[in-house]
Specification:
Elements: E1 6-8, E2 11-13, H1 26-29, E3 43-44, H2 46-59, H3 65-74, E4 77-80, E5 83-86, E6 88-89, E7 93-94, E8 97-100, E9 103-106, H4 107-113, H5 123-127, E10 130-134, E11 143-147, H6 154-163, H7 167-170, H8 172-179, H9 181-198
Parallel strand pairs: 2-11
Antiparallel strand pairs: 1-2, 3-5, 4-5, 6-7, 8-9, 10-11
Length: 200
């Protein structure tokens, strides 16, 4: 069945989000999204550079010594052809990764959950496996919220199906953080319409 495009306040929403199940399974994936092989790390917003700089001295205490040294010598971000991104060490782990019981975790999120900083982590990381791609300048204009499927996240899909957790429910805090609660409610209404139509 071909699904109609969803546009909410000028933002295109991937219709596949309506039926997708997802719930991170760190025990299985080992935090793979934080150390996948790539030229660049997590996409960053311009305003996140200052937020990261403000929290940097606090989160450094959670990082391995090699990461701290790397950041001090090379910085933590770079400009690419598509925008800003965190830097990676050896084209793999994000510079802000620390390891706990063999699982890659985010030093910002650790400091946030400990009540030490107000910046949880880059919004691109918080939203993953959703990505907000800018289409400004293209004929269609606007942005698109896309569900990105990677092999490393298969355990999360399996766990989501087992526990009955939809992707948009699991990522609700991140979606509201970026787009706002009003936008989330509009998206939910549109996705529920698709789901109701498909069960008839």
């Amino acid at each position: 069945m071909t699904r109609s495009a969803i546009v909410i306040d000028g933002i295109f929403v991937d219709p596949e989000i309506a039926s997708a199940y997802f719930k991170c399974d760190l025990e299985k994936c080992k935090g793979a999204c934080c150390f996948m092989e790539a030229d660049y790390g997590a996409p960053l917003l311009e305003e996140e550079i200052e937020q990261i700089n403000n929290a940097l001295q606090i989160v450094k205490k959670y990082l391995p010594e090699k990461n701290v040294k790397f950041i001090e010598e090379n910085g933590f971000y770079e400009r690419t052809e598509t925008g800003l991104s965190t830097k990676c060490i050896d084209r793999r782990e994000c510079v802000f990764v620390y390891w706990e019981d063999g699982i890659a975790k985010c030093s910002f999120e650790k400091a946030f959950l400990n009540g030490e900083i107000s910046f949880r982590k880059p919004i691109s990381c918080h939203l993953f496996p959703l990505r907000n791609y800018s289409l400004r300048g293209a004929l269609v204009g606007g942005d698109i919220l896309k569900y990105v499927k990677i092999p490393e996240c298969k355990p999360g899909v399996k766990k989501g199906k087992k526990d009955g957790v939809k992707l948009y429910d699991f990522l609700k805090p991140a979606i509201i953080r970026y787009f706002g609660s009003g936008w989330y409610d509009k998206m939910l209404e549109a996705l529920n319409t698709i789901n109701n139509r498909e069960v008839r």
